[in-house]
Amino acid sequence: MVNKMLRFIDVGERRPDKRPAAERRHDFHEIYAEFDPDAAAEQAGRCSQCGVPFCQVHCPLHNNIPDWLLLSAEGRLEEAYELAQATNNFPEICGRICPQDRLCEGNCVIEQAGHGAVTIGAIEKYITETAWQRGWVRPVRPGQERSQSVGIVGAGPAGLAAAEELRRHGYEVVVYDRYDRIGGLLIYGIPNFKLEKQVVARRAQLLRDSGVAFRLNCEVGRDISLADLRARHDAVLIATGVYKARALKVPGAGLGNIYPALDYLIASNRKGLGDAVPEFDSGALNAAGKNVVVIGGGDTAMDCVRTAIRQGARAVRCLYRRDRENMPGSRREVEHAEEEGVEFVWLSAPEAFLGEGTVRAVRAARVHLGVPDATGRQSPQIIAGSSFTVEADLVIEALGFDPEDLPARLHQPDLAVTRWGTLRIDHRTMRTNLDGVFAAGDIVRGASLVVWAVRDGRDAAAQIHRYIQSRVDGAEAGTSDRAVA
Predict the structure, then answer these.
(1) What is the DSSP code string of 273-319?
(2) Which helix (H) or strand (E) holds 382?
(3) How far apart, in Å, do the first and last CA atoms of the chain sit?
(4) Distance between CA atoms of residues 364 and 449, nearest Å
(5) pTM above 0.90, yes or no
(6) Which of 113, 184, 288, 445 could form a disulfide with 312 if both were Cys (CB 3.0 to 4.6 A apart)?
(7) Cα(105)–Cα(126) distance, rounded to whole angstroms?
């Protein structure tokens, strides 16, 4: 057989065609076209089949990337899909929204050698979309149905990944979520131009077809207590994510038209889903015709600036206190935003919001990056006398998220938390200090990536299975001992 791999010297890096910025800035459709079969196979064939695959090492799920690239290059797409989904519950979602430039592709050996990375994310998306089209994606059918049940709090990526894995083991699984749709931030936090909602809805239906039950519009702590869940189920997984927005504490912070990023994104996504959104219809959370300032440099900030462009903002500026090289978000997202007309104001730290009643401008100061701090990042230092103002009719704060007060919200004051407010767990077993209660995802690690939430959900499911089976085995052993006596 002709070797279809190691073609990176003769074949250059290529991504699927990207729609022109002038076109895509007027709609919320995904910006990349699909790979055609020949292009996908050609790109997969660039893989150097490393003995130590750093792409796999740096993937939180440790996906078998070189193996499914080889299968894709050889046209064995069903096998490639089976391998991809063996370690990832949502490969078509991760293929779209993972920051591959910081993970698999950024650590591709041929990228480091100067030949350009294999476009792993686009190929992963292509493999899985092909699998959906050809009927290879099927509901879970456990070999054995078990009598035990598991309750999961949160229908985001961690909870959904755990739900699917637990169904594979045959458990009855019920997912409780305070929102009216399945997906958490996949539905309400991430804009359509990165992840169209039918992709999430398709996975949600697959979970339903697999036997996972959902109790939506059900907030644990309000509509049902954690104590009730513990009594009803053999184990409970808390996978609520973190939603409490951080805010700047500067003069003028109480002015109108200053909003948290998630409020803004949820309003936009709900409008796209056809919901009634009074805050959007009133113009409060609609950027149309406004001078928009987004504060922050992560992926959420990029979602906000690109959403504002599509809503028809007059101007969109992103203020970030570090420079491009020190941004926590995906550099690829920054490139997309710049193409679409976003202006980045690097090395700028907001000092105050100006206006009477409502915000009219942001006063910021220039920043110099000093010596690295304990995390290795250079510390921002304000340059005296460098203040300037940026006109703003709408300010969106994308400064990250903190956990809600879960012990209070769940009416479980003895639920242990860390000094950051995240749930304290034994990381070997994923268990909280409450018997039979586990936790996974952002509520444990803090705001992070979807791919890490999937990893945590899978790990939690494995530990829940071990916990329940140890109790079953112990009960059976006790019954046997009594019978012998």
Answers:
(1) TT---HHHHTTTT--TT-EEEEE--SHHHHHHHHHHHHTT-SEEEEE
(2) strand 378-382
(3) 67
(4) 29
(5) yes
(6) 288
(7) 16
